[in-house]
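The authors assume throughout that readers already know how a fold can be written as discrete tokens. Each protein is reduced to its one-letter sequence and a matching series of backbone shape codes. I therefore recommend that a typical entry be quoted early in the introduction. For illustration, here is how one protein appears when written out as sequence plus structure tokens:
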Amino acid sequence: MENLQMFKKIPSFQDERLSGKETKSHYKIFDIDQAAAFFVSIMPGLSDKLVRRLELADELLRQNSCVQEALGTNVGLKIVGVSGDTVEVALCDLEGDKVDLGYRIENPDTAFPEYYEEHESESYDNEQIALKRRVLYYALTTGAGLVVNPYRMWQYTIKD
């Protein structure tokens, strides 16, 4: 379990949220095969770069023994939506089912990337949910060079 140190706590994005710079978007849902074609059709320059980074993150998740050790299972990346240069992703198991990351619609704050780092939950094992979020966060930020939306832990974009 010493390898789990690579999944350190997700930093707080509270200052960014307080700045009030949230952007609203409408999302279209795609399966993983449609997503790459969609990127190519609407963002020729950006699409290849973003798709390559998402593929890199997926490969990191699937092949990293630390991820498997941390979560007790193999996981991959699933594209669940796109809007402009932003992609919505989920961790999924090898059958393609989404891994529960603790988001609850009745508590919108659970969408914040670091929520389970800072709050206790009666219905979840906070450490396990926080670890799953860390795995997703670090695969996409450190591994693939993307930036997380501070309001939604499942939305990422290419750095400016």
